[in-house]
Amino acid sequence: MAGAPFPENEAVRLLDLARYHILDTQAEEAFDRITRLAAQVLRVPVAVLNFVDENRQWGKAMVGLEDSEAPREHSFCAWTILEDGPFVVHNAPADLRFRDNPMVTGAPHIHLYAGAPLITPAGQRIGTLCVTDDQPHTLDEQDLQALQDLAALAMTELELRAHVHVLTGHLSGREAYEAELRQTLEHARTLEGVQELGDLPLFPRELAHQTAALLAGALSSDWAALLVLRGAEAHGEWLPVHLPPDLAGLAGHFQALGQAVTGGLAHLTAPAYLDPYAAHPAARPDTTTAGVQAVAWVPMGAWDGQTFVLMTARVSAERRSGWRASDRALLDAAARSVRVAVQRQTTLRSLEQEARRDALTRLLNRRAFDEDLHAHTSGAPFTLALIDLDGFKAINDTEGHATGDVVLRLFGSALESQLEQGQAAYRLGGDEFVLLLPGRCSDDAVHELVDVAVLAAQQGTVGRIGASVGVARQAPGEDVQAALARADARMYGAKRHRQARRRERLT
What we know:
The chain is of the alpha+beta class. The chain has 14 helices and 15 strands. The termini are far apart.
């Protein structure tokens, strides 16, 4: 089964259809009357006024069916809008185009189909008036002319409806325009506030929290929370949006609603809406009964494994309910602004972290050491261990710099793997390393760390390698540079001692 091809002017046709604001509207007697006449005049059990949009056919009025909505690829009417005149299929089960169609093999078991296109004044075919029968049924020229006449009558009703819509809009246009202008200005100020928050040095969690509170106020929300998601876990941080006394009992309903949908929120990239809430297939009956009108989830970005989502709702029908186009535009723009700000902070943090890393060993570098050492000016006790690899120059000279690089990486990796929370290893340059250990560590503990790292580095070379270590603990009130100088002196003292012993062995 192949669906109907699209008309060449499909985009223009869809724009003309949108002008009538007819899709997904309630039944109207003027159109019901036309389908009743079509069924009676053509002596058929089913008559439908269908409109064909981008992906489906949708029925505004019908006789003999409860619902005619169907995917466009299954639609007979999608074939009808390719013609200026009636489109007739006398024997659908025998027609190669339709014999496998679900509407032929199943209800309503179409045998006969006849449709007349609804042609707008601009010449666009936006839908059909069609009739079907599940039995063989012959239509003559008079029948088809009657079908076209009734389709033209339906088009007249559509035009009348559109003009009434325009006139009604003009009558209330000025007041609506002024209200919309006020809201647009308010939303513009809110968005400006969101962008200003993004420029402040706020942690992403704080940025998301303040933005969510700002949006909840601008949208006149009855309830709002910032949902924080980490893996399968989620919790809500309620925002200062106070429910009126008659709605205070709804907090439990909202909490349950948030828990019911959090599974799909971690990957949300654009705001999601339940509007109207009661019409959604996933709507909770208790939440609907409690008066929920519309709910929105707005992604606020992710940071350190946590995803932040604003959940906000409008409750009472007496208050402004549903999300207007301007509301959605504000939420879309605000969500983008926050995500950009969070991404900017993530990128800056990544660049800052990368700037603190040694490219070869991936240990922290001299810049990071200087910054972290300076942070210890608070006086908290710490232990410094300066390390210089012995025999490294000989390895570079005899085995090459590539082997030397392997030795440095093995040494650095083994050194870092032994450290506990809060401890740090740095490569200062060349074959010089340093450990910064909070608290007071014994010389034996430091030498044990270094010995393990030396054994690991030895696996990368056939030469002999060792390490000279200088350990210093900051004395109370001592300047950090003094402790560093003492460790440096002890390290060079250890190196001279090792060199002296080597000379003694050689003589």
